[in-house]
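Kindly inspect both lines:
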Amino acid sequence: FQMDQRALFKFVSEIMAKDGQESLALKFLIQYLGTFGGEVYPEDVQALATTAVLSGIKSPVSSFSDRNALLESLSNQKLAGSLEILVELLRILCTGSLDVYRSFESSNRAFLVSNGISHEEVEKSVRLLALCSLGAQESVLSYDVIASTLKVDIFDVEMWVVEAMSQS
């Protein structure tokens, strides 16, 4: 039964991707990957997992729940090599801070470039998610708190707030 389920999830994911429905394709790919509970991925599945993680990393901030679901589906897997590094970046996007991302980026700059990951886009996502987390914790935020958390000039705070609101 599990092999049939795997094949179905993979097939639906491929159809959704061909139809340009990337978010749905990712959801089914996440379900497919989740059927491998704790196993080492075969080489072809490793490639699919890498594609899924890259898609999750490059997805817009509004895909936060997809990122978390993908991270969860990979949490019990034995990861190695580039997939392990990509999953660490995905984890930072889901749970990290700007400082954690910057430390990761400085250690993995060449890796990010070689995988077509834009430092600027990821940093922007981390900042927006940090702002959303702040907003979830407090109903009133000062410009100083936002500027300090996002590590931006106080004069840029309004731009970040507007950007975060437009992403939701």
User: Anything to note?
Assistant: DSSP finds nine helices and no strands in the chain.
